[in-house]
Amino acid sequence: QVQLAESGGGSVQAGGSLRLSCAASLYTGNSYSMAWFRQTPGKEREGVASIDTDGIANYADSVKGRFTISRDNAKSTLYLQMNSLKPEDTAMYYCAARVGARSTWWYDYRYWGQGTQVTVSS
Questions:
Q1: DSSP 87
Q2: Residues β-bridged to residue 78
Q3: Which of 39, 52, 80, 121 is the most buried (most CB within 10 A)?
């Protein structure tokens, strides 16, 4: 059974930093791309960053230069380092996984965590 569990969310002032983690339990033998998404009430889930098995990453324009996605395959853990946080980064952040190439679209991902809340105050 595939399981994803996010941690590391919290409240921070603008300009601060947070590091999100996603502990993944995935089927062996498959190659999974992984991603972070975020969502605020009433809005569609938005892709933040994605990374494939070789570590090649892609970022939303809104977070480029501030966020860094990485993965430790040995620890089966995905990370999102978030620096220079802004109030507009406030959202529920979700970890997601899919077999195959990375994608920026939420509907391409089959496996999801429960989310971790990030709140940035001005």
A1: G
A2: 22, 71
A3: 80
